[in-house]
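Internal tracking record. Fields below are filled automatically when a chain is submitted to the structure queue. Please do not edit lines marked as system-generated. If the sequence contains nonstandard residues, flag them in the REMARKS field before resubmitting.
Queue: standard
Priority: normal
Entity type: single polypeptide chain
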Amino acid sequence: MITISKKTFEGKHWDYFILICRVLLAWQFLSFGYAKFFDDGQFGISPEELNKPIKDLSLFKVMWYLFDHNPFKTIIGICQVLCGALLLYKKTVIIGALFFLPIAFNILIMDITFMDSSMVNGFASRLSYYIILDFLILLYYRDRMLIVFKAITSNMTNKFSHPFGMYLISPVLAVLLSLVPVIPVVLFYLVAEPDEMIHSLGHAWQGLTKATQHFLK
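SYSTEM-GENERATED OUTPUT FOLLOWS
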């Protein structure tokens, strides 16, 4: 039986290895993120492909076309560049490694879903390898992560005791809270386009009434 001691992840060579992992992952995200700031960067399809019906395009080409629009492309690029920078800086490496995971997993899922079978194996295996390297970075700094995890999860209590009735009405209050951002929009359109807004509110009220009646049956 093979056992891995704690010292295995504390030697000098592991320290060098983790540094190389950080540089590799940072370079990948910095380069791909930087490319997204330009029109001829990572995304986009050719003019010939744009003239084809969408049914004649592969899912990958459709995805590549949609991802070439802003602000989506720029925001993803900023996130990747920021993550790469955090991985390089010693004091923020854990934040960078944690930041890396949701971005990488999303890319992996999209590659598996939309890429052609001829491409997916190479891209998915390489990205999976990068995710494993990222987990090794987190494993290397596990002592610091455990301190933070214990600090934010232990002895979690409410400042005030909650009566049982509060838990019962909290779903209703949550629904009302979700409607708060709608109020300024409704007020704006009541002034700008009152007839259409009143008509829309009437339809919404009818739908709510029907849903309530159906629920109470």
